[in-house]
Design brief:
six-stranded mixed sheet, 32% helix, globular, Rossmann fold, 744 residues, 3 domains, alpha/beta, eight-stranded parallel sheet, 22 helices, binds 1-deoxynojirimycin
């Protein structure tokens, strides 16, 4: 018999624990209220105001005297684009001259690293390694916090299915389920063991919501979508981030079905603060409150401020609509003061949780800044993350990996010796670039000598001239292997970097063709922030690595993969189109009533008459130097009732010659439902390391949650019926199939 005592004492502990937690919560809430009671209306509005301070990191804080004066008067709650302890301390000291001495919050776009630049988020997502992704965010947070930052404007969790949209680089790609896992991992990484530690920063989940669906892939453009798509595709990563405890959210520039996000009460009040019970605060995107005027949604900043606060937007980034109008709106009876109080409470609460009321300078420690920003372990993690992000797209006749005694290696292309280009769009710039490892340097480090390498630039990234092809061809002729390094420059993909032509820029593909004609074995490295189009290269060149923008350790990581010190294991988190005309293209589309069975099946089918309907490289695709077989699929049952589970297992075997990791993916299809369902949906994956010849049994559970979707009433339900289970190495490479039934 089980004695009752331990249970009762456990219960006692639990109750005592909950009371303690409640007491602590009350304490912060009470503290917030006690500060709020002291505040004038102007001071409250000040807390809801955020300015940018574009002062050079090393220079003195001069100029912009108005802003500095407003800090002293308590009219500013937060600043962005300030970093470095020296600056944050100086500005915090000004805040301490204000009447109530409410500390400032310093925010910054720490998107893929602070001092140490990691791969761009889309590249990291290709690793399908949630632990590594969390670690990358943890390191970024540790560094940012050591540099005086309290708050990072990340993770960006917008689902993106249109590579014309430059901001695709900042997210985790096209899939809602993978996007949700990555969003939660990043929030955990940034916030660490919890706000209040001096190595934890507040995450800011952005851009709420549906910004990734900008029409035509044009940045800042409108979004028009059904509620079903919003809930099923675009909201899941936001929900996961909120559930992971994200401290703040940022809304977005776009209008959603005619209502700008900054004034969208459905998104901010009903969904985020209502249904999801989010207790943090919402900041606008840069100037987005004021931009409701050109949207044609409000006539002036007075109305803009009213629309935004009534819809639940707590802080105004840079539009000055709040600071200039909110107090008047309250006095005019247009905004209840309780609305202002609600926002200020949310903001002050975070300042308390960050410990800033106890010590406004707790993030201002020069010794810590020096030590943390120079931690060599961070470089090691950056190299590891970069290797994990590289996708092997093609490896005909096992050209890769190369042997270090390969002979002469020609390294040709506009990116061969580039350093800053390796960083990508959103990296924090530091005064020198010596710390970035170029591809040339990575290869030199690997081969131990520069005289084994021959260099030629061939052309610039965006050149129209072939004038230097001759030199490149003669370099190739002297070599045993040719590595061609091409792609985008770092300012081609990012915010406001929408493009309609996604082919390799300039004459780069012509350069590849000219080098190919030498008959030498060729490996192409493609650095970019988005899926590019390179059909000729994909058809002809034997080996292709997609190397994105990998950050400080790019060169070393690429050399590790080229020479087999790391077996590539990344899988595409987004479909690669073969032509712009296919966009948007994504794997979890509907079947339609007239599906095309293949590219010859076009007659009155849902197909193009002049183009394949299949991507060049599918979601989930990526090769390894080794190979894997899938077998022995077993389901514990072929049916389940609500509340029951099916355990699925299968055998994964490394059938090749290298140790390597496989990302085994599993997808479901709900065969008949009250709403049409996608042809397949990713529901899980396992990343498994196997030595040659080694096998592992991989297991996962199917339960009702995995079978659920938002029905017509937007209720999350699983409907009885037959489901197809698909397990494989990519969304278009399914190796095992089965069916099962949900009975009731
Ligand atoms: C505008 C961008 O949309 C947003 O992501 C960023 O955080 C802010 N600018 C601040 O730089």
């Amino acid at each position: 018999m089980i004695p009752k005592l331990p249970f009762l004492s456990l219960l006692g502990w639990w109750i005592a624990g909950s009371i303690a937690v409640q007491a602590q919560k009350r304490t912060i809430d009470q503290k917030v209220d006690s500060v709020l009671r002291l505040m004038t209306l102007d001071e409250k509005v000040g807390q809801m105001n955020q300015y940018s301070g574009n002062w050079a990191q090393t220079g003195p804080i001069t100029g912009d005297d108005d802003k500095l004066q407003e800090i002293k008067e308590g009219k500013l709650g937060s600043m962005l684009n300030i970093n470095g302890v020296r600056h944050t301390r100086e500005l915090q000291q000004l805040a301490m001259q204000s009447r109530l001495k409410i500390p400032l919050l310093f925010g910054q776009d720490v998107i893929h690293g602070y001092r140490t630049t990691f791969p761009i988020p889309l590249a990291e997502a290709a690793s399908w390694d949630l632990t590594a992704i969390e670690r990358s965010a943890r390191i970024a947070a540790t560094e940012a916090a050591a540099g005086g930052i309290h708050w990072v404007f990340a993770p960006m969790v917008d689902i993106a299915r249109d590579p014309r949209w430059g901001r695709i680089m900042e997210g985790a790609g096209e899939d809602p389920w993978l996007g949700a896992q990555v969003a939660a991992a990043r929030v955990k990484g940034f916030q660490g063991t919890g706000l209040g530690h001096t190595d934890a920063v507040m995450a800011c989940v952005k851009h709420f919501a549906a910004y990734g669906a900008a029409i035509g892939g044009r940045d800042y453009n409108s979004v028009d979508m059904s509620d079903r798509t919003l809930w099923e595709v675009y909201l899941p990563p936001f929900k996961a981030a909120a559930e992971a405890g994200a401290a703040t959210f940022m809304n977005s520039f776009n209008d959603l079905n005619g209502i700008p996000a900054s004034a969208n009460s459905y998104l901010q009040r009903d969904i985020l603060k209502g249904k999801w019970k989010f207790t943090g605060f919402i900041v606008s995107d840069w100037g987005s409150i004021g931009e409701m005027i050109p949207h044609g949604f409000v006539k002036d900043n007075y109305d803009a401020a009213r629309a935004a606060i009534m819809a639940g937007n707590d802080m105004d980034m840079e539009s000055r609509s709040y600071t200039k109008n909110l107090a008047r709106l309250v006095k005019d009876g247009k905004v209840p003061v309780e609305r202002v109080n609600e926002s200020v409470r949310r903001i002050l609460k975070k300042k308390f949780e960050m410990g800033l009321f106890d010590d406004p300078f707790r993030f201002c420690n020069e010794e810590r800044e020096r030590r943390v920003l120079n931690d060599p372990e961070h470089r090691k993690s950056a190299r590891d993350m970069a290797r994990k992000s590289i996708v092997l797209l093609k490896n005909q006749d096992q050209l890769l990996p190369l042997r270090t005694n390969v002979g002469k290696v020609a390294v040709i292309g506009p990116l061969a010796k580039a350093k800053m280009q390796m960083l990508g769009f959103w990296s924090t710039e530091w005064p020198d670039s010596d710390y970035i490892v170029s591809e040339w340097e990575g290869l030199r480090n690997k081969l131990g000598a520069e005289n084994k390498l021959i260099y030629a630039k061939g052309c610039g990234i965006d050149d129209s001239s072939r004038a230097n092809f001759g030199e490149a061809i003669s370099a190739a002729r002297q070599a045993d292997i040719v590595i061609v390094t091409v792609g985008e420059s770092r300012d081609m993909t990012g915010e406001a970097k929408s493009r309609s032509n996604l082919h390799l820029p300039g004459v780069q593909e012509d350069l590849i063709r000219a080098l190919y004609e030498t008959g030498k074995p060729i490996v192409v490295l493609i650095s970019a922030g988005r899926p590019l189009i390179f059909n000729w290269t994909a058809d002809h060149v034997p080996a292709i690595l997609y190397t994105w923008w990998l950050g400080d350790e790019a060169g070393n990581a690429i050399a590790d993969v080229l020479f087999g010190d790391y077996d590539p294991s990344a899988k595409l988190p987004v479909s690669f189109p073969r032509a712009e005309g296919q966009i948007p293209i994504y794997y979890d589309h509907f079947n339609t009533g007239r599906p095309a069975l293949n590219d010859s099946d076009r007659f009155y089918r849902s197909a193009y008459n002049d183009l394949s309907i299949y991507p060049r490289f599918a979601f989930g695709y990526g090769l390894s130097y080794t190979s894997f077989s899938y077998s022995d699929l077993r389901l514990s049952s072929k049916s389940l009732d609500a509340g029951q589970k099916i355990t699925v297992s299968f055998k994964l075997t490394n059938t090749g010659a290298y140790a390597g990791e496989e990302v085994a993916q599993w997808y479901l299809k709900d065969e008949v439902a009250s709403l049409v369902r996608p042809v397949k949906e990713l529901k899980g994956f396992s990343k498994v390391m196997l030595r040659p010849g080694e096998s592992a049994s991989v297991q996962f559970i199917i339960d009702q949650e995995k079978l659920s979707f938002y029905n017509r009433q937007l209720d999350w339900v699983a409907e009885p019926g037959t489901f197809e289970l698909m397990i494989g190495s990519a969304s278009d490479d399914i190796r095992l199939h089965s069916k099962f039934e949900l009975r009731k």
